[in-house]
Design brief:
Shape: globular
CATH architecture: 3-Layer(aba) Sandwich
CATH superfamily: Acetylglutamate kinase-like
Number of helices: 9
CATH topology: Carbamate kinase
Number of domains: 1
Number of strands: 8
Structural class: alpha/beta
Largest sheet: 8 strands, mixed
Length: about 260
């Protein structure tokens, strides 16, 4: 345990498509139930709708997918993804609220206010509730075309609610100097240090739209806004609780600009 660690008042957890499995969802729900006891302002940004849809339809991601294909898979998969979260959180006495947004919702001051008001309302719900946010791929084609990803969405959400910390859960435990060597993990990135660009390539994730380079750039942008950011492996036991509640040195920590 890091005795100097300050538990954040508001935090965003983002999990990527390639990290989502039934086992991970169950574990994440249990951890978020624990975290929610001390962090009232907690939001989950979750990818995975398209992949759930592909699995339902017996399809796999491939370069020939059209925008219509992706919209269809997202529309099939989103209710299945939310059902998985609802079932997992129900075991801990927590309801889930679905927040499907587009980038227009963050471009408009009025819409930003509305999104924030719904989140604020979830904090005062009679039954403890976690807001699960995802892009509304069905109605927005810019996102599907690859101009944005859910790492950037997590950034928008974090800045909207004035989060103190953002946790990105991915397949790998943080940033590595050598992607094939877990021992080459970079534990800390000082604010303003861009050496990570020397080690992180441009590739995207297998089933999602983002990748480690996008994740690192988003982390650096968040750090510029004074927000702590950690990139860590989703499969590590109790990873979210250990980082957000105890400040354990797991993954890669992007240190924020001092406010």
């Amino acid at each position: 345990m890091n005795t100097s660690h300050r538990i954040p008042e508001r935090a965003v957890i983002k999990i990527g498509t390639d990290s989502i499995t039934p086992k991970v969802i169950e574990a994440l729900a249990a951890q978020m139930a624990e975290i929610r006891q001390q962090v009232s302002g907690l939001i989950l940004v979750s990818s995975g709708a398209m992949q759930y849809g592909r699995l339902d339809q017996g399809a796999t991601k491939h370069p020939a997918e059209t925008v219509a294909d992706k919209k269809f898979f997202a529309s099939v998969g989103q209710p299945k993804l939310m059902a998985a979260y609802a079932k997992a959180f129900q075991k801990h006495g927590i309801s889930v609220a679905q927040g499907l947004v587009t980038w227009d919702d963050f471009d408009s001051r009025k819409r930003r206010k509305q999104v924030n008001e719904v989140w604020q309302r979830s904090l005062t719900a009679k039954r403890k509730t976690i807001l699960v946010v995802n892009e509304n791929d069905f109605t927005a084609d810019d996102e599907i075309a690859g101009f944005r990803d859910n790492d950037h969405l997590a950034q928008e959400v974090a800045e909207l609610i004035h989060a103190n910390e953002v946790l990105f859960l991915s397949k790998t435990n943080g940033v590595r100097r050598n992607v094939k060597d877990p021992r080459s993990r970079i534990a800390v990135v000082e604010h303003g240090d861009e050496q990570w660009k020397n080690w992180v390539g441009e590739s995207t994730s297998g089933n999602g739209k983002g990748g480690m380079r996008n994740k690192c750039q988003t982390a650096a942008d968040l750090a510029d806004h004074g927000i702590d950011v950690v990139i860590a492996g989703a499969n590590i036991r109790n990873v979210a609780s250990r980082i957000l509640l105890h400040g354990e040195a797991i993954g890669t920590h992007f240190l924020p600009k001092q406010r």
